[in-house]
């Protein structure tokens, strides 16, 4: 946990990361909410910055897999933040998404997780869609990047030329990869989503699963992955 880029706090949990963004007005948004342990880190950052929970205005959800929504119910209760997500993610948040084929395993694992964590679903407050401009952190544009899930979204800051890319890819030293097939609801849509990010070519990319916080490195690794799987 720590401030990595100015105003970006990475919060590392059991399976992946979520990110807290704080702007100069001292308003915050959270990109995803993590699974186990993140809530204590989130509270710790708020204490350190002397921010009240009400400073958290919104949760921007990349998608509704359990490792991203595990603390959603708590975050909303604690802060009163609104949940912004693509309409298609409600079924994932509710745990009612009908996985098909090999992705059924994803559903089985999530069902186990819901029970272990006493998970409670919540309603999306505002639906987001491709091209929406969100008035947070100096402006974030929604990029609808379906494939991993149908409503999977990234968030692009033109001010920083930085894309929060959700689970479009995972970035590890020995293994830069697309999410495993069993986790993808609509794999046929992934190449096009990757091409759109590649065309945007952001200088900085922050995925939600990675080894080190180095947004330039993740952008480079993404291009390498594209060369491998798209060219
Ligand atoms: Zn996922
Ligand atoms: Zn994930």
Short account of what is shown:
With 231 residues, the protein is α/β, with parallel strands linked by helices. It contains seven helices and 14 strands.
Description of the structure:
By secondary structure, this protein is of the alpha/beta class. It has one domain: Metallo-beta-lactamase, Chain A (4-Layer Sandwich), CATH 3.60.15. The chain is 29% helix and 24% strand. The protein has seven helices and 14 strands. The strands form three sheets. The protein has a seven-stranded mixed sheet with strand order 1-2-3-4-5-6-7, with helices on one face. Strands 8-9-10-11-14 form a five-stranded mixed sheet. Strands 12-13 form a two-stranded antiparallel sheet. Strand 9 and strand 10 form a beta hairpin. Helix 6 crosses helix 7 (215-229). The longest helix has 15 residues, at 215-229. It is globular and about 50 Å long. It starts with a strand and ends with a helix. The model has no long low-confidence stretch (mean pLDDT 94). It binds zinc ion (ZN) (2 copies). One zinc ion (ZN) binds at residues 16, 65, 67-68, 167, 208-209. Residues 16, 65, 67-68, 167, 208-209 line the site of one zinc ion (ZN).
């Amino acid at each position: 946990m720590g401030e990595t880029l100015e105003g970006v706090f990475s919060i590392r949990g059991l399976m992946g990361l979520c990110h807290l963004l704080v702007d100069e007005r001292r308003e915050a948004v959270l990109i995803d909410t993590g699974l186990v342990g993140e809530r204590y880190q989130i509270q710790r950052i708020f204490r350190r910055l002397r921010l009240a929970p009400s400073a958290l205005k919104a949760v921007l959800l990349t998608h509704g897999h359990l490792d991203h929504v595990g603390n959603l119910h708590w975050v909303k209760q604690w802060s009163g933040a609104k949940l912004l997500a693509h309409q298609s993610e409600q079924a994932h948040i509710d745990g009612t998404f009908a996985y098909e084929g090999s992705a059924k395993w994803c559903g089985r694992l999530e069902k186990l997780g819901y029970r272990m964590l006493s998970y409670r679903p919540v309603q999306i407050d505002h639906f987001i869609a491709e091209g929406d401009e969100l008035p947070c952190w100096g402006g974030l544009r929604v990029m609808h990047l379906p494939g991993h899930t149908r409503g999977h979204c990234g968030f692009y800051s033109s001010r920083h030329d930085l894309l929060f890319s959700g689970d479009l890819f995972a970035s590890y030293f020995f293994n830069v990869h697309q999410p495993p097939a069993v986790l993808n609801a609509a794999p046929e849509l992934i190449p096009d989503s990757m091409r759109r990010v590649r065309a945007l070519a952001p200088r900085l990319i922050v995925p939600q699963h990675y080894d080190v916080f180095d947004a330039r490195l993740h952008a480079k690794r993404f291009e390498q992955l594209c060369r491998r799987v798209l060219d």
